[in-house]
Amino acid sequence: MEDLSKILSLIHEKVVSSGFELYDIEIKDAGSRLIIRVFIDKKFGFISIRDCVYVSRILEPFLESMIDRSFTLEVSSPGADRELKKDDDFERFKGMNVEILKKNGQRFVGKLMGKVGDEVFIMIDDKGKKGRVFSFKLAEINKVKLYPKI
Prior knowledge:
Elements lengths: L3 H14 L3 E10 L2 E9 L7 H18 L3 E7 L10 H6 L4 E6 L4 E10 L2 E8 L2 E9 L3 E6 L4
Parallel strand pairs: 2-3
Antiparallel strand pairs: 1-2, 4-5, 4-8, 5-6, 6-7
Helix pairs in contact: 1-2
């Protein structure tokens, strides 16, 4: 059986040393094979197919030496509607439109004003009037993600 903590650590190390940020890793056991999804990002600009191929070629030989069964490696960007997970994300995407999905099922869309402590602030337009700023406690939020549809 594979040591998942070593695999995760290796992926993180190789992605970062290649000049990218590690956004997320998903590892699924699909019976006789593993499916490894690595989501990469970079501070400035967008992730290209070339970036994904580059990281894939770096990771594959190391993973082959660590995993004793067949696996599928998928490297991609987090997408235009990515979930904001780290404090840096809230600073980086300040001023962009986000969707907040609360644990109670409520949904709010507005311009991200930032995150302070355990609160996220967004400005919601009120039918053409100047927007109002709303705050949401992290404990009430299920997910905050970019909302490029506006």
